[in-house]
Each structure stands twice: as C-alpha cells, then as structure tokens.
Amino acid sequence: MFHETRSRAENALNKFREPSKFLRAWVEAPLTTGAVAPSGPVLAQRMAEFVPVESNNPVLELGPGTGPVTKAILEAGISKDRLTCLEYSTDFCEHLSDKFEGLNVVQGDAYNMRPSLEHIAPNSLCAVVSSLPLVSRPMEFRLKCIRDAFALMRPGAPFIQFSYSFASPVTLKSKLFSWSKTGWIVKNIPPARVWIFRKPF
C-alpha cells in the first residue's frame, strides 16, 4: 500500500515537473522556447498522425522541448532508431535523453540546421515535425528553415507545424510548397491548429 501511494505521488509530481521546466525555459529565453507550456497530448497526437508510419525512412523533429510530441511520434509507431530530435536547449536535450533512452538527440539550431544534421542524407526524410515558435522569427528565417528541411526530405514529404495563430506561420504565397491545415484543436491550451507544408514532387 505504501509503495502504491508513493508511486502515485511520484506520478503526480512528474506531471508538474515538465510544465515548470518549460515555463522556466520560456522566462529565460522566450524567443527560442516560444510557448509557456508544452503541447497537450491531443495536439501532439494530431501532429503524429501526419507522419507516414509505413515508410522506412527517417523522421526529424525540430524543437521537441520536453518531448510531448516525441512521445506521440514514438507511440504512433516510429521506432527510436528512425527519429532524430534537434533541440537548441541543452537542458531539454538532457531531459529528452533521460526520458527516451536510446533516442538520437542532437543539440543545435533549427534555423541553421545543416551543420548539426550531417548524418542525415539529402532527400531521405519522410517527415519533419516542428514545434518551433516560427512566428517569433522574421519571415526569411521561417522560409529558410523550411527550405533547409526540404533539402533533407523526400518529394511529397510533410513538414508538420503547429501554430496558435489564425494565419499561416509562413506566407502561403511561397511556391516552395503545397499546404493544408487542420481545424482548431480546442482541447489544447491555448487552442492550436496543425499546418502541413509538403515538398513538391
């Protein structure tokens, strides 16, 4: 009985640790963290739905933070050896490595991703899943990020990005991609939607 009570207490504490870690990171670096809380499970699962599980090709996650979307990607059926997580914060990198033992976590800048991702062959990724705060950066930075990701992606592969904004996080006038979006995910706090930008064939 004591061990069961202790286990429940530890689980309850863990539910508060990740949001507080995320909030602290946002206070210290709002431009790189972007949100005051990690993505909720419903949003994370919705993003993971667009990852082609049936493919054998690798997947890249940008800005995983404390790992809610990482968890959803793995639970959707992507094996750890297929997933690379690129994270700017060294604290989050440590957290991810501890939480998902054996996961390939790379510390680096998603807005200058190529030096950090030399192990990924061009035109090989079947999906990129991004929780980056794109709207906090100038438009040329956002487009460069997608352009650099596309260089590593297979034709037709999705760049999956969530946003709290009504408008697209990147200009839809760009000829870089085709696009689609989901409806609002109101169970997330705050509500968000998922944008899918596909590399042309």
Features:
alpha/beta, Rossmann fold
What does this structure look like?
There is one protein chain. The N terminus is likely disordered. α4 links the parallel β1 and β2. The protein has 201 residues and is an alpha/beta fold. The radius of gyration is 17 Å and the shape is globular. Strands 3-2-1-4-5-7-6 form a seven-stranded mixed sheet, sandwiched between helices. The chain is 36% helix and 16% strand. It has a single domain, classed as Vaccinia Virus protein VP39 (Rossmann fold).
Indicate the topology:
Elements (H helix, E strand, L loop, with lengths): L1 H27 L1 H4 L7 H8 L10 E4 L5 H9 L6 E5 L2 H10 L4 E4 L19 E4 L8 H14 L5 E6 L14 E4 L11 E6 L3
Parallel strand pairs: 1-2, 1-4, 2-3, 4-5
Antiparallel strand pairs: 5-7, 6-7
Helix pairs in contact: 3-4
- The CATH topology comes to Rossmann fold
Adjacency order of strands in the biggest sheet = 3-2-1-4-5-7-6
CATH architecture heading = 3-Layer(aba) Sandwich
Q: What is the helix content?
A: 25-40%
Structural class computed from helices and strand pairing: alpha/beta
Strand content: 15-25%
CATH class: Alpha Beta
* Rg calc: 17 Å
Gist of the model:
With 201 residues, the protein is an alpha/beta fold. The chain has six helices and seven strands.
